[in-house]
Amino acid sequence: MCALSVCEDERLKLAINLSFSCSLRLGELLGLTWDCIDISPEAIEENRAYVFINKESQRIRKESLNALDGKDVLLVFPTNHKKNSTVRILKTSKTESSVRKIFLPKSVANMLVDWKAEQDEMKEILGDEYMDYNLVMASTFGLPLGDGAIRGPLKN
Question: 3-state DSSP call for residue 104?
Fold first, then answer.
């Protein structure tokens, strides 16, 4: 039996499909933003829908962040707990060869269209409570997801 046929978690289905069809590492998947995706109706119809991979999400130690002095760091996400010794960041890709444009199968492009519509609906419902970081894989409130948000459900 195929794992996708028994998966009821829409976020996990999308994550699995994006990971396999685009050969994404988990950090790349979690760092994917809507401005790096073309899923316009024309692009889907003409088989040129794509994702552009140029950044990744990563959790690093606060002292490592200070040592980096902003190098390769695009965004530092706010933390809920001041006592945390780590922080989640959005950073540039590790190497130049990691930056790539990947064309999407129509099925995955259409999944992204549906996912975007659900996310936009949630933004409208939550209003100012939605923290919009433009992330494809975001929490209900728009915050970045940790690795466990994908790994945990995947194990189940």
Answer: coil
User: If you write DSSP's letter for every residue of 49-85 in order, what string do you get?
Assistant: -EEEE-EEEEEEEHHHHHHHTTTTEEEE---S-TT-S
Find the helix packing angle between 10-22 and 148-155, rounded to 10°. Answer: 100
Cα 129 from chain centroid? 20
What mean pLDDT comes out for the span 6-30? 89
Say how many residues make up the chain: 156
pLDDT in tens, 85-119: 899 999 998 888 899 999 999 999 999 999 999 99
Quick one: which of 86, 105, 85 has its CA closest to 44? 105
Q: What percent of the chain has pLDDT over 90?
A: 68
What is the C-alpha end-to-end distance of the chain, expressed in Å? 15
